[in-house]
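Per-record layout

source: Datura stramonium
name: protein-serine/threonine phosphatase
length: 384
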Amino acid sequence: MSCTVAISNSPAFSPAPRVPMTSSLLCRSASFSSSSSSCKSSETLTLTKFPSFTSSSSPSSQLKNLRIQKPSPAQISLVRNSAECSTSPILKRKRPARLDIPVVSTNFGNFPATTVAAADFVEAEGDEYSVCCKRGRRGAMEDRYSAFVNLQGDSKQGMFGVFDGHGGAKAAEFAAEHLNKNIMDELARRKDEDVVEALKNGYLKTDSEFLSQEFRGGSCCVTALIRKGNLVVSNAGDCRAVVSRGGIAEALTSDHKPSRKDEKDRIETSGGYVDCSNGVWRIHGSLAVSRGIGDRYLKQWVISEPETKVVELNPELEFLVLASDGLWDKVSNQEVVDTARPLCTGGISKPQPLLASKKLIDLAVSRGSVDDTSVMIIQLQQFC
């Protein structure tokens, strides 16, 4: 291929007949164009002869030709994304291999809808209990609950729980499904003897099973088992159980926090440390609770062994409140009983424990609670 270019001082630019200009003259890669700063062609042409453009050239001189030859394939340089039309080769970057990300199943099996609270706001009630769960402002709902009544066909038996997840909801979900069953299995294996040991082993087994799933996060737990005329309350973490005894609030559990002297001593004895930042005591500057299900990376210090208390049911015990720390951090034990009692007992024709649960959550929120908050009220007179 060749192009013929007319020199500006030749007669070709006089009013005389024009030299025909073919399309081959418009070489897109030629440097004479005003758009030479942006090269759009994938071929670079080389100049084999370049004339001298001087003012001394005679107007009568013959037409001078500048021949532009197409180079051989070996001379062609690929130009990629260059604003300066550089002739040095730029290699195309190889696309990295696609990442193979494993899909982790989050299905824990089928279980009654009343055992899980996964929405922003959940409420449920039965003849024996009412529960309300509200998502806080920190992220997705991580609280869960469980409620099983008529255990073994006995209307005077039931088991309830509130689970406050942290680092995700997986541990709370797992505990809500498996803890009750593991406790009942332990009771059956012991033929109802040593209920405290059965509760302990049920918690430990649930923790071990969850850790084998290789999920992260953990969960605080509080459970209430009602059977054979006894109320058996267990907790691991800072979920709390408070009973109304004739209108007087009585805490049946003690929060497991690193600031508690015996918990702090236990952690430090086992090689860990506890420090305080912004008024909050944490294990290794991370977790603000010292017991619970999960928390594999702090498992040496965050144990799952619960503390358990057995109370005999009697007419003085009116109702039991199980709740996550979203409530207890803002509302005192006695305030909880004082707020709920007019709607749960007394001379009203129909108790409204669900409304009482909602009022308690509203009270916590009005005082600045931003955490997930779950409140369950159990009418103990139904089991006497």
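summary: The first strand starts at residue 46 and ends at 47. Confidence is low (pLDDT under 50) at residues 1-70, 73-88, 95-117.
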